[in-house]
Design a protein that fits this description.
This protein has about 130 residues and is an alpha+beta fold. It is about 40% helix and about 35% strand. The protein is built from three helices and seven strands; from the N terminus they run ββββββαβαα. It has a five-stranded antiparallel β-sheet with strand order 6-5-4-1-7. Strands 2-3 form a two-stranded antiparallel ribbon. β2 and β3 form a beta hairpin. The longest helix is centred in the C-terminal third of the chain and has 21 residues.
Length: about 130
């Protein structure tokens, strides 16, 4: 599993306590460009499953259920740094292809998407990274 994840779209996620009763819960808002760092610390809780300790912008740590990470990744709310770089490369090639074919509609579509992805990457520069 990747160690760093980038938030692609702002969302709120409930953070639960890992105690058996799960009596403590609060909601944290994650903003586009924020970075999660998956630490090596894990916890297995009977009847609940695996929880991983996640560091958020090098400021805050919380436990998150492994299925929550998988769901957020599948939904496109988070991605790895490599995924982001690959998307930028892909969109650059599509922009060039649209230019070669003189397809204005495709060009405008791909440049808009490329600008969005590059703005997320730009926001990452100002986010502290946990090591």
């Amino acid at each position: 599993m990747n160690e760093h994840f980038i938030i692609l779209e702002t969302f709120q996620h409930p953070v639960r306590c890992c105690c058996p009763g799960q009596g403590h819960e609060y909601t944290v808002e994650f903003k586009q460009g924020d970075i999660w760092f998956l630490t090596k610390e894990r916890k297995y809780i009977d009847c609940l499953g695996w929880y991983f300790l996640m560091a958020f912008n090098n400021e805050y740590q919380f436990y998150i259920h492994v299925e929550d990470i998988e769901n957020l990744y599948r939904e496109g709310s988070i991605c790895s740094i490599l995924d982001l770089e690959l998307k930028i490369n892909y969109l650059n090639s599509k922009v060039n292809e649209a230019l070669d074919e003189q397809d204005r509609k495709a060009f405008l579509s791909y440049t808009g998407e490329l600008n969005d992805v590059q703005s997320i990457k730009e926001k990452m520069k100002y986010t502290p990274v946990y090591n």
